[in-house]
Amino acid sequence: MARLHEVKGILPALVTPFKKDESIDEQALRDLVNFVIEKGVHGVVPVGTTGEFMYMKPEEREKVFKIVVDEVNGRVPVIAGCGASGTDIALDLVKRAEDIGADAALVVSPFYIAPWDKGVFEHFRRICSSTDLPIVVYNIPQCTGYFISGKVIEDLAEFENVIALKDSSGSIAYILEVIERTEGKLNVLVGHDEIVMAALMAGASGAILASANVIPEVWCQLYDAVQRGDITKARKLQLGAQKVARIITRYGGPVAVKAALGMRGIKVGKTRRPLVSGGVLSWEDREELRLELEKLGVLKPSYGRVEEFPKEEFSDIGLTPEVIGKHGMRVAKCSAGSGTEEVILSAVVGTLESPISEAFALALSLPREGYEALTAILEPNLMVRPATLIVPAVKVENMRQASMIYGPVQAAVAKAVADSLEEGTIPKEFAETGLMIVKVRIHPNALNRKMIYGNTYEAMRTIIKEIWGG
């Protein structure tokens, strides 16, 4: 096969799909490969950091190499993740990748017990001198605990089969140092999603990105914009993708990528233990990720299930259907989730001059036992705008039920209102001239606070969009 002499463009650091029993999901992996290639990527990188290589046996990594090489079928280069802390283990993986037909190998610097510069150089020297396969050296100090020094990179650039450095440090200064030291002898690939445009402008030839699993078309557009000198468009694309990049880079890695792919309809399963979704990617970050994908236009809004509004919903606080209609108040209802974690919200909004003001005040000042209302607050003594009142629709019978309503539900409603105001779904002028009352139904046996938060946020966002015609 023809050897890869240089690598450039956008290359997703592929996640490894796992089934429920944590075995490799071959069909899901093939589907992912085709998804990113169809979106225009210039290569793929299986079993890197995002691919959870550290939790996989050598035989499993070899299996992934085979699947990806077979499915790619020469359409784009395949750079196999062959990183290992031990030199002989890494070399064994490189030879497996070479035998399978990978175009290059990505090899991280030794980790856990970090060697000095001489040890790092010897690690790569032994690998490079024992194979003809092109090597991409991988610098990721967040995981290894150290930078590969510029001098070591300069020396490694003398090896004919060292074709590139992947740098995930996030340091433009480091990238510039490498480019200056190596004088074009190797390419530099940025691996930090938050600085892609800056790195390309500094001279990087491409990017290996976790988020390129999720938004490959966005990064490909950015890369093309930089190549033709359209800096305005490139900057707009980078800023548009920045929050997605930030959440994935800082708050989740493979966990966040797999969650986001699921939102796009690409099923890749969960991460392997010890990584768990709730411990790394919070429900708040998950919903932020969903919102940002919607903003980028790669995901259609999918919040909740909008339901027919019951005309008598707010009659118990004086807002009958006749009153609501006469004063032009708006109403909506939505549910999200299922089973014991289902959340059902109903909302009415109106101006300060309408009867909603009296209903709001009475619900606070004359609460009914078990139906005590509370305001939506972002933090102590900081109410959201427009002022929003939360009222249980089903009598609260015990402290556990109360902790759900006056905990995750309250927080999620407040966050949804604040986010909607910030992005303009709720008109700015309504923040000071209007009020909102939200009735909440949750299952009396609900236990999962994080799911209740996520479902409440989802339903509230849908209601707001429904009311304001979003």
What does this structure look like?
44% of the residues lie in helices and 15% in strands. The model has no long low-confidence stretch (mean pLDDT 91). Helix 6 (150-156) packs parallel to helix 7. The protein is an alpha/beta fold and 470 residues long. It has helices spanning 26-38, 58-72, 87-100, 117-129, 141-144, 150-156, 172-182, 196-202, 216-227, 231-250, 254-263, 277-280, 283-295, 321-326, 356-365, 399-423, 430-433, 449-467; strands at 9-12, 79-81, 104-108, 135-139, 162-167, 187-190, 206-209, 305-307, 330-336, 343-351, 374-375, 377-379, 382-383, 387-392, 434-442. The chain contains 18 helices and 15 strands. It folds into two domains: 9-295, Aldolase class I (TIM Barrel, Alpha-Beta Barrel); 305-467, Ribosomal Protein S5, domain 2, CATH 3.30.230. The termini are far apart.
